[in-house]
Amino acid sequence: MKQSFRSTVHNLIILSGNIRDRYPFPTGDGKYIPLNLSQYLAETLRLKGYERFLAFNTIDGFAAIIPRGDVDADARGFFKEQFKVAFDDKGATKCSLEKSLEVIGQIIAHKEHFVAVIADFASRYAVRAEGLTDKEHDYFTKALMLSPARKMRANSIKTFLWSKRKAWF
Hints:
Helix content: 25-40%
Radius of gyration: 16 Å
Number of strands: 8
Strand content: 15-25%
Largest sheet: 6 strands, mixed
Shape: globular
Structural class: alpha/beta
């Protein structure tokens, strides 16, 4: 996955498949460590110049993804200072789908740092596979409209990743 990942043109990326597996990440000494997908993406994107990583899911809300060697407090402090995302003792910020779009929109508009947002398990944001509610339809439409590809600047690296198990939308 590391060798084939490219984000120079398409900044809305949808990942599908075995999103709950562990993936081998090279440690640089000929060894590999198993990482979950969000952590793997953060480590890989960090090698490409990204600085901060944030994941969202409907159960826990937002959580900072901390690459190996980084300090939890620094990453969480960044999101609190820049985007008013305050984390609880478990390192999460619970919020609604609507509120998540506000934060994602702020991150995409942010010009100073390279930030990736992962919408984790996004195919399960919908209650029923056979038909989205108006609220769910609005969420997915607005999320696609926020896609960084629509607002690309020459000095900008922004990526919005959707991880999904099975296509519902």
